Each structure stands twice: as structure tokens, then as C-alpha cells.
Amino acid sequence: MREIIDISQPLREGMPVWPGDTEFAFSLVWTIAQSGSVNVGRLELSTHAGTHVDAPFHFDDSGAKVHELELERYIGPARVIDAAGHPALGAAELRRHDLGGAERILIRTGSWTDRSRFPRGITCLRPDAAGYLAERGVRLIGVDTPSVDPVESRELPAHHALLRHDIHILEGIVLDGVEPGDYELVALPLALRSADASPVRAVLLGGSKD
Ligand SMILES: N[C@@H](CC(=O)c1ccccc1NC=O)C(=O)O
């Protein structure tokens, strides 16, 4: 049995959300006490709640929507690298890490320290990281922050550069205590018609396949 490492943020009332975005809410609309048979909940949440993938449509009107994402991009070999301690990560910083030919690179920036609040001053990606990653065969980049661009950015240069190089984005993963190294990633978007992003349950499978 392979070890399963959950790298997802718990979705819960009061969890941090993008400034001004929909707060997460869960409530029971039917209870066993009232209905005599079942509890049934309802959710209100942003498509960017917690750990999520951005579809290109999030920042490009002609970009692919969530239901158009190929699932194979979100399942398969992934390398976790520890790149903590940088205000921004460009080609120069990433060059110091062995990416090992993995199509999926998950970056621990360590820049979201207090998970009870939405972070300020996160480590972002520089646009020149995109070409460097693409040359090494990367197709999915995951970060432990809510964005690959600075939170104040309107132009979203790293999002656009990554898309131009056909690299998709997984945001808000939790890599505290995860050893750098090679894993299998599973982080599937929901089958959400027309959406700009989707929460995912992201897990790493460690150990051997036997
Ligand atoms: N582009 C950011 C998210 C973002 O910009 C955002 C997410 C939720 C609600 C509002 C957002 N931006 C608003 O200006 C990202 O996905 O990395």
C-alpha cells in the first residue's frame, strides 16, 4: 500500500479567501431531526477556494474552461522542490534545482506561514521561469501560495507566460513537512461546466508502486 500524503487545504468556515472573494460556507439544509431520514448539505464557495487549479479561462477569455482540461495533466509523476527563501523565482533561481525531467513540479516557497490568514508578500514566479520550465518538459506547476503572481498584480504576467508555454497552474497546495523528492500527484478538477477554476483534492502518493 502506498503512502498517501494529503497536500490539500481543509475547506472550512472562516478559511482565508482571496480578498473580496466569496467566503466559504457549508450548512445543512435538511437534517435527520427535521426530515426524519437524512442530513443534506449545501456549499457556497469560490472556484478558487483552498487548493485549486486555474483554467486558462480564469485570465484569458478565449482560454480553456475547467470541463475542457485534460485530466492526465493532473495525475502522474511529480517532483517536489524546496525553493524557500526567495522573494521571486525566475529561471536563475530554478536553475539551482534538479527538476529531474518531471512533467509536474511542485514548489515549496514557504512564504505562506500563517495559514489562518490570507498571505501578504508571497513568493511569486517571474515570467522567465515559464520558458525555463517548458524547456525541461514541465506541464503543471504547483505552488504553496494562492497565486503564482503577486496578490496586487492585475496583469498576471506569470499566469500568462505559463499559459503561452502550455504550463497549467495548481495553487494553494500544502507542502509543510513534505520531503522534497519524487511522488505521484493526483489533483483532479471537478467536472465543472464552464468554470474558470476548480477546487481539487490534491494528494501525493509516495513509496514504491508494489
Ligand atoms: N489570479 C489569481 C487569483 C485572482 O486574481 C483572484 C482569485 C479570486 C478572486 C479574485 C481574484 N482576482 C481579482 O482581482 C490566481 O489564480 O493566481
From TrEMBL:
Positions annotated as active site in the UniProt record: 58
InterPro entries: KFase/CYL, KFase_sf, Kynurenine_formamidase_bac
Pathway: Amino-acid degradation; L-tryptophan degradation via kynurenine pathway; L-kynurenine from L-tryptophan: step 2/2
Molecular function GO terms recorded: arylformamidase activity; formamidase activity; zinc ion binding
Catalyzed reaction equations: N-formyl-L-kynurenine + H2O = L-kynurenine + formate + H(+)
GO biological process: L-tryptophan catabolic process to kynurenine
Alphabetically ordered keywords of this record: Hydrolase, Metal-binding, Tryptophan catabolism, Zinc
Function per UniProt: Catalyzes the hydrolysis of N-formyl-L-kynurenine to L-kynurenine, the second step in the kynurenine pathway of tryptophan degradation.
Name by which UniProt lists this protein: Kynurenine formamidase
